[in-house]
Amino acid sequence: MQSAVEIFRNAAELAQQAAQLILTQSQLAVARNNLFTIALSGGSTPKRLYELLADPTQQFRSQLPWDRIHFFWTDERHVPPDHPDSNYRMVREAMLVRAPVPPTNVHRMLSEKPNASEAANDYESQLRDFFHPPAGELPRIDFALLGLGPEGHTASLFPDSEVLQETQRWVAAPWIAKLNSYRLTMTLPVLNNASTVVFLVSGSEKAEILREVLKGEPDRFPAQRINPTNGALSWLVDENAASKLQEPF
Length: 249
Ligand code: 6PG
Prior knowledge:
Elements: E1 4-8, H1 11-33, E2 36-40, H2 47-53, H3 59-63, E3 69-73, E4 75-77, H4 87-94, H5 116-131, E5 143-146, E6 171-172, E7 175-176, E8 181-186, H6 188-191, E9 196-201, H7 207-215, E10 232-238
C-alpha cells in the first residue's frame, strides 16, 4: 500500500498539523469553488483537532472560512444526537458550538431513527440532494478524515463485514456483532471518491495495527481498502503510533 506517512512528536503536534491541513485545503477549495465539504470521524483521536479548530486563542478559528464549510460525518453510532456515544454530539461540543458555523452547514446522520437502514437511506438522500452528481456518479467530498480502530476498522467498516463488498449504496447500516449494534457508515465507493483522505492515528495502542495496515499483507483490514481513486491519501500519525514502523516509507 503506497501512501504518504507523516510522523509527529505527540498528539498535540498531530492535531496542529491536521488543523493546518484543513485550513489550507479549505482556503484552496473555497477560492476554487466557494465551498469546502468535509466528512468527519468520531472516536477519541480527532477530538483535540476539533477543539483546536474552534479555539479562540488560535489562528484557525479566525482564518477558517466557516460559512463556506459544510460538515458531514463518515459514520455514526445508532444512537440519538444527544447520546454520549454520538459522533455528532462529540463534534458539536468540541467544535460546532464554539465556532461561527451556520446550522444549515451541518449535515448529520439521523441516527435517532429506530430503523438504522432508514437512517442510512436518509443520509444517502441528503448527500444526493447536496452534491447532486450526474446520474451514476458518486459524490465528491473534498476532505474525509478517518481514524483507525484496533482491529483495522475505519469509519464503521469493520473486518469481514458485508458492507465491504458494497458497490451501489453510498451509506449503509451494517450490523456489528461484536458491538451488538448497528452502525451507520459511508461506504468504500464514497470514501474512495474523496479528493483528500487523511487518517489520524495516535497512541501506542495503535502501533501494531498501524504496522500491519501499512507494512503487512495487503487487503486484510478495512483500512487498507481506503485508496482514493482520484485523490490523495495521507496518514498523519504520532510517534507512539509509529513506534513499530520502520523507515523507509
Ligand atoms: C467511530 C469512528 C471510528 C474511529 C476509530 C478510531 O465512530 O468510532 O468513526 O472509525 O475513527 O475507531 O477511534 P479512536 O480515535 O477512538 O481510536
